[in-house]
Every structure is written in structure tokens, then in C-alpha cells.
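Progress report, Aim 2. The chain analyzed during this reporting quarter is listed below.
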Amino acid sequence: DVIHHKPDPESLSMALKEMGREVDEQAIMIGDSRNDLAAANALGIDSILFFPETHHLMYDKQYMIDTYEPTYVVASHEETKAIVQGAAWE
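Predicted C-alpha cells for the chain:
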């Protein structure tokens, strides 16, 4: 449904609109690629870099952190859940 794909933030904007939300402090992108993080940065929202042990075989974790500056870095779904549950989500 989008013309411009990630890293363009169009898909994130569309998802928020479909949920009846605006870009605000409650929006967060959970992703495992540079395109996910770049889209979050372009939209100005927080991001979680999901980086389980198996990703070390394909990606440079420090490069991802230094380049895209995710708000959080996690290695498991449990860590992601804890972050999301700890936020003031409606």
C-alpha cells in the first residue's frame, strides 16, 4: 500500500494512521535491520534493535548501534516485551 519502502518512513506513518495514532512519544519501531532503524529515525520515533545471537553471523552489532543509534538493543522477545510493558502504552 506504500509507494516508498523502508528506509523511507511512509510505511510507519501509514501504520500509525491506520491505528488512529499520530507520531508521538508512544510510537516505537521494533526491527532487526538497518532499514527498520533508518525508517524510525527518519520519522523521529524510538526504536528497538532486535539482535539475537544468530544475527552476529550476518550483521555487525556495533555498526548498527553507532550508525542508527537505536533507543534500545535487545537479544530476546522477553526483553522487548519488558520494554514495551514498562512504557506508558494505552
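The two ends are 26 Å apart (CA to CA). The CA atoms of residues 28 and 84 lie 9 Å apart. These observations will guide the mutagenesis work planned for the next reporting period.
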